[in-house]
Amino acid sequence: MIDFHHVPFAQERIDERLKNWARWVKPRKTSWVHPMWRGFKPSEVWTQVEVSVPLDPLDAQKLERGVSALPDQHKFSIRWCYVYRGNPARAARMVGETQEGLAALISAARVMLVNRGV
Fold first, then answer.
1. 68: number of CA atoms within 13 Å, CB side?
2. What pTM was computed for the model?
3. Per-residue pLDDT of the chain (118 residues; tens, 9 = 90+)
4. What is the distance between the alpha carbons of residues 23 and 18, in angstroms, rounded to a whole number?
5. Distances (CA, A) of 21 to 12, 67, 103, 112
6. Distance between CA 95 and CA 89 in Å, rounded?
C-alpha cells in the first residue's frame, strides 16, 4: 500500500506551498443566494470558531508557473496529488505508471520545483 500523503522531511516546505497553491487553483462551485436571504443570520449561535490559514495568492501564482513548466508526467502527478485527488490506481494508469511510479513522480516533481527555485 502506497501512502500518497507521506512527505519526506526535506520536502515539507514545498509541500506547504503546494497546499497553498492547491487551495488557490482548485475549481469551486459558485453558489447563488437570493438577495432577501443574503444577510440572514440563523438564530443558532455557533460556538466553534474556524481558524483558517490565509491564502498567499502571489506565491500560488509563482508555483503555478513552476508547475506548468514541469514535464507532462510530473505536472499531471503533482496536479493529481494536490488538486484533483481521487483513485490512485486510475491516476497511475492515466500517466502510464504503477502506483509506486506515481509516488516517485510526485516526489521528483517536488524536488524539481525546489531545484528550479520556485
1. 8
2. 0.78
3. 888 888 999 999 999 999 999 999 987 766 677 777 777 666 665 555 565 778 899 999 999 999 999 999 999 999 999 998 889 999 999 999 999 999 999 999 999 999 998 8
4. 9
5. 14, 10, 19, 16
6. 10
Q: And the C-alpha cell for 111?
A: 524536488
Q: How far is Cα 104 from Cα 88, in angstroms, rounded to an integer? A: 13
C-alpha grid cell for residue 26?
482548485
In whole angstroms, give the CA distance from residue 15 to residue 57. 16
- Quick one: which of 89, 91, 90 has its CA closest to 78? 91
Grid cell at residue 46: 455557533
